[in-house]
Every structure is written in structure tokens, then in C-alpha cells.
């Protein structure tokens, strides 16, 4: 069977060689890449120095992103209700201002965390925004 390229019912201006949003293959077309939702890179550093950078969706928390990507050391036993302190992280000094301080309720819960420092935060209370693209947090030796 002989195929006609392009097919007879091809819309005017359509080209098989021009990239478009529905190009098949392993590499998304430039248009598809433009339409992809923004994701913020979040880096988690373990006590031994091992680090993992993952894509965090704005609106999710740093804890939810850690759980989604199976980051070690973030327990999050209460599921993000600010009621367990097992999602404790240290915010990198360069990111402290952008992340902001803990709320009063979070500070109270941090009293139950292990080795609390001035840059301690509960990762379930840090909402990812575009401004936090590149955020670096460190996971403590243990959570309690
Ligand atoms: Fe429990 Fe953050 S998950 S305090």
C-alpha cells in the first residue's frame, strides 16, 4: 500500500517536518515544553552529604515533595498537620529570607524536634512557590 504524505485532508499550513505540540517521539516539542507547568527545583541534602534535587510543584509543600520522591529522613507522621515535628529540616542560610520564619504554632511544634537550630523549619509548613526554585534544605541526623 502506498501512503500519501501529507494526507489529502491535511489542514492548510500543516507540515510533517515542522515541530508542533503533538509530535511523536522521545523529545517533547518546544511548544509542549512551553506549556508544561512550572516546577521548582528543591534539593535535599542528607547528613552524609548525599543530595537529591527533585521537581516540586507550586502549592505542594517541601514535605509532600520529599515523600513523593522518597527522600530519606522525612518521616511526616502526621501527614502535614503540624502535629509531629518528624518533617524537620534545616533551611540553607541563603534561602532563609525567601522561606521566611516559622509560625507560632510551628515554633511550638519545633520544640519537640531533634537538634533544633535557628534555621530549623517543619517542611510541611513550607509551601513551594516559584520564588523557592532552587531551595536547599538539609535533613537532620534523626527526627526525634
Ligand atoms: Fe507532622 Fe510536619 S508532617 S509536623
Secondary-structure blueprint:
Layout: H1 30-35, E1 40-45, E2 51-56, H2 62-68, E3 88-91, H3 96-99, H4 104-110, E4 120-122, E5 135-138
Parallel strand pairs: 1-5
Antiparallel strand pairs: 1-2, 3-4, 3-5
How would you describe the overall organization of this protein?
The structure is a single chain. The longest helix has 7 residues, at 62-68. It is elongated and about 70 Å long. 17% of the residues lie in helices and 16% in strands. The protein is of the alpha+beta class and 144 residues long. It has a single domain, classed as Ubiquitin-like (UB roll) (Roll), CATH 3.10.20.30. The protein is built from four helices and five strands, in the order αββαβααββ. It has helices at residues 30-35, 62-68, 96-99, 104-110, and strands at residues 40-45, 51-56, 88-91, 120-122, 135-138. The model has no long low-confidence stretch (mean pLDDT 87). It has a five-stranded mixed β-sheet with strand order 2-1-5-3-4. Bound molecules: FE2/S2 (inorganic) cluster (FES). FE2/S2 (inorganic) cluster binds at residues 63, 76-78, 80-87, 109, 122, 124.
Amino acid at each position: 500500500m502506498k501512503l500519501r504524505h501529507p494526507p489529502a485532508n491535511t489542514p492548510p499550513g500543516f507540515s510533517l517536518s515542522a515541530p508542533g505540540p503533538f509530535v511523536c517521539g522521545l523529545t517533547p516539542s518546544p511548544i509542549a515544553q512551553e506549556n508544561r507547568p512550572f516546577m521548582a527545583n528543591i534539593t535535599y541534602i542528607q547528613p552524609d552529604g548525599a543530595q537529591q534535587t527533585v521537581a516540586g510543584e507550586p502549592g505542594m509543600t517541601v514535605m509532600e515533595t520529599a515523600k513523593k520522591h522518597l527522600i530519606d529522613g522525612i518521616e511526616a507522621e502526621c501527614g502535614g498537620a503540624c502535629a509531629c515535628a518528624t518533617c524537620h529540616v534545616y533551611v540553607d542560610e541563603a534561602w532563609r529570607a525567601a522561606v521566611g520564619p516559622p509560625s507560632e504554632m510551628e515554633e511550638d511544634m519545633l520544640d519537640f524536634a531533634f537538634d533544633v537550630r535557628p534555621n530549623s523549619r517543619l517542611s510541611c509548613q513550607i509551601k513551594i512557590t516559584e520564588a523557592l526554585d532552587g531551595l536547599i534544605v538539609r535533613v537532620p541526623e534523626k527526627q526525634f
